[in-house]
Structure formats: C-alpha cells, structure tokens
Amino acid sequence: MLGLFCAKATDALAAMRSAVVAKRQPLPYQLELNFTVFSTSSGRSHRRQSRKLSRISLVRDCPHRIVDPRKTDWNKWTNSMVKRANLSPLDEVGWLAEQSNDFKEWAGQVARWKTFKKGQFIYHAGDRSDGLYGLASGSLQITFPLVAEEPVVIHRAEIGFWIGDAAELANLPRMVTLMAASQARLLHLPSSAVKILLANKPEQWRCFYELNTSNLHAAVAQLAEVLALTVRARVCRRLLALSNRDGFAAITQDDLARLLGVARPTLRRCLADLEVRGAIETNYRKLRVIDANILRVYKDEQ
Fold first, then answer.
1. Which residue of 23, 160, 225, 291 pairs with 93 in a disulfide if CB–CB is 3.0 to 4.6 A?
2. How far is CA 225 from the centre of its chain?
3. H or E element, residue 208
4. 47-61, 69-83, 128-142: which has the minimum mean pLDDT?
C-alpha cells in the first residue's frame, strides 16, 4: 500500500515537472512536498520530508502566484524559457509590432495563447490583474459597470488591440470587463513575467507606457466623438473601423446601437440613409460596407 502510494506520488511529481520544465535549467523557485503516509498493515506512520523538485518555474503557468522579482536571476530565468510562442500576427500589427526585437523575444518566451468562445469573459471589473492580453483573431467587447445590471459598452476591439496595462502598471483591480464578442484568440503576457522584466530591465517601462498612452488616446478620442460629431459621423467611423477586407462588419445592429450609445430607431434611420446613398448594405444580423469613400465623406460631420 505504501509502495503503491509513493510510486503514484512520484509519477505525479515527475509529470508535473515535465509539464512545466522542458529543459534541466536552474530556475528561480523550488517546490517542496511534505506528506505523511499511514501503513494499513502496521499502523505506523512514515514521513517523507522535503521532497524537492529541481526548481520548477511558476511564472509560465501560474500567473496569479506571487513572485519576488528582486530574488529572480534574470539570465537563469530567460535561459529556462526554451519554447517560444509564435507571435503572429501581433508581431506585425498593433503595439507589440512597434517594440524592439529584444522585447519581442521576451514576449515570445513568456507569452501563452488562449482561446475564448463567443460570450466568454476574459476578466471582470474588480478582478486582480493577471497580465496583458493582445487580440490576434476575433473581436472583444469592453464594458464599464456604470450601472451594475446594465453595463455600458464602451469599445469593440479588433485585431492588434492590447489591454490590461492600466491595472497591471498601477497594481489596481480591473476597471472594465472584457468579453469575447466572437470566438477570439488572445496572447497573454502574465503579470508575474511583466514584474520580473521590469525589475531586471527598468528601461522597458517605456514600452508599457506607450501602450498605456495609446489606449488613453483612444478613450479620449471616443469621448470627443460623442461630444462633437453627429450620429451619422460616428456610425461611419465605427463601420470603417469594424469592417474587414470584404466589407463585412462583425457586429449586429443592436450591438452597434449599444456601442454608440444611441436608441435603436435612431441607428436604423441612420443606416437606412447610408444604404440609400450606396455606402452600405444591411442584411439580417449583418452589415456590409459597399463604398468606404462615402463613409469617409461623413465621418467628420459635426
């Protein structure tokens, strides 16, 4: 009985170690296991003390684990990251594409891909930060809990969009709720990895402040649009931003109305006007841009 338990425990520990560590390298953490086994035949207890696994990294798969970046050897930690993520298309579009090769190399070492189904939440307002997320495919909906029962839709994100910087840099709870508006594939930069990077290479703070400034600029621009532009101008801007190469906008009329903060009848009248002008085509649960140049004519209307 004792031998069987120990064998299973050893196998489980070995499986855990192989899943986390792909190469025998000294890493910045140790996992110690103390357990007590009782023999059913004799009633005596046997204690195995401090069974040590050779330094398992807790950075890659345990983003909520508290780490002390001051005690982390940067060179040993980066050398331990053998498997690198393919960053495409985020190394070609958006914030990450604008960073240095060294930064992209770091991102490839620590990042992990995650897939979310339509309607699945990535995180909620008030959650503890677990890092940054970049959108590689699909779309994201961002809501703000102005009224608990009816959160306000404030943004519909597309490929190349990054979020999570504000809560991560300020060490504060999430301000908004992030949900997959369609099936989405996201690249996740864990909080623990970001902390270790900034503790060892403080010059990289600038990269994250660039992202923070970019997202702030987008928020201020949307506020200015609401205050200064007509509904038709705002509809044109959203359709231009959301439409793909074939002209289809991945958003329903109801969702577009919520995103713009207008009543559905108001939006329907605006869409009907643009359809008569030959700018768009409306179908059941679909919007398609036929002539983007017409939308550009009205996008600055005040």
1. 160
2. 26
3. helix 205-228
4. 47-61
Q: Is 185 exposed, middle or buried (0-12, 13-18, 19+ CB in 10 A)?
A: middle
Domain count, the chain: 3
282 pairs with which residues across the strands? 287
- Give the dihedral of Cα atoms 79, 84, 89, 91; nearest 10 deg: 10
Question: What is the mean pLDDT of the segment spanning 3-32?
Answer: 43
pTM here is 0.70
Question: Given the structure tokens 């923070």, which residue do they identify?
Answer: 212
Q: Which residues pair with 130 in a beta bridge?
A: none
> How would residue 21 be classed by pLDDT, with cut points 50, 70 and 90?
very low
> For residue 84, what pLDDT is reported?
67
Is there a single domain that holds both residue 279 and residue 172?
Answer: no
Report the alpha-carbon distance of residue 32 to residue 49 in Å, rounded.
9
The closest of 25, 109, 105 to 73, measured between CA atoms, is 25
- Spatial separation of the C-alpha atoms in residues 226 and 244, rounded to whole Å: 24
Q: What CA–CA distance (Å, rounded) separates 113 from 21?
A: 18
pLDDT, one tens digit per residue, over 153-187 is: 999 988 999 999 999 999 999 999 999 999 999 99
Structural tokens at position 9: 């425990």
Is 175 in the same domain as 189?
A: yes
Domain of residue 148 covers 87-225
Give the pLDDT score at 234: 95
